[in-house]
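tool=predict chain=A
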Amino acid sequence: MSALGLLLVGAAAAGIGSPATLAGAGAVLLAGSSGFVVGVHRLGRPSHGERLEARLRYRPLQVLARTAEAATRYRVSWPGGAAVLAYSTLNWLLDAGVLVLAFVLLGLAVPWHVLLFAYAASQIAAGLSFLPAGLGALEAGLVGGFLLMGMNAGTALAATLMFRVVAYWAVAAVGAVIFVAQTRQRRAGPPGGARSR
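tool=predict ok
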């Protein structure tokens, strides 16, 4: 919901679609998300889950209904859910800040009016990918979003690659170094060569 919401805000900033269309899409997103949450809470009641499972004749559907019913036992309060939504939106915005940094590092002008739209489109594309970290899909979504808004292909590709280097590969490299260092430290044992029993 937060990524789709940012896509709508980005589309408004980029001048894509009429305000009425974007407001309508936002209302549908809000109503659909709220309906989903209410439906999941209703499904989580034992009587509803058991009735649904009893109505299904085929074993795979019964297993699916049982799994869905078990998943609904993990609940969060409305304030807790709002906090999760706020934190996820903040996460997206901070990550988009890395995209701004990519333009700055390359000495390019930051395309403020299209940046959020292209970024949100790339995150949605990455979410639909089966590859780790949306590899390939995120890059294609980001470059495609920029090209759709009239950016030069070379600029879009350079900014996208810099973004991926900073936001993904640099973080992965730091994590790998820390992992190797901690593994070696564990193998070496406590200082002084004395091993605890």
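Residues 2-43+76-193 form one domain. The mean pLDDT is 82.
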